[in-house]
Design a protein that fits this description.
106 residues; globular; three-stranded mixed sheet; single chain; three-stranded antiparallel sheet; Deoxyribonuclease I, Chain A; alpha+beta; 6 strands
């Protein structure tokens, strides 16, 4: 990341298959590489008690989020949400999407 030498915000998002704050990969990215977990930085969080992985079974309340949106640089997170959308009992994925609102820049 240091080789990018940019003042622009860097956003890293994905299915990491590892619970946030409970995995060495998370620790490396947040503690050592200087990324901020937008989930914890958010001023407001919706569905914070839900797992992001649900295996097409719907909401489960253990608060294990294996999908992360990390940011580095000038960005502020105003809100974060685990989106539980389903239509006719059908989920579009085995993971709930994580949605964040970011304000980029100063």
């Amino acid at each position: 990341m240091e080789d990018l030498k940019t003042d622009l915000p860097i956003i890293l998002a994905g299915d990491f298959n590892a619970v946030a704050k409970a995995n060495p990969a998370y620790d490396i990215l947040v503690d050592k590489a200087g990324f901020t977990d937008t989930w914890y930085a958010a001023q407001e969080r919706k569905n914070a008690d839900l797992n992001s992985f649900h295996n097409f079974r719907g909401p489960s309340q253990r608060g294990q989020r294996i999908d992360w949106i990390l940011v580095k640089g000038k960005a502020q997170t105003t809100s974060a949400e685990i989106v539980t959308y389903a239509e006719g009992g059908q989920y579009p994925s085995d993971h709930f999407p994580i949605l964040v609102q970011l304000k980029l820049g100063e």
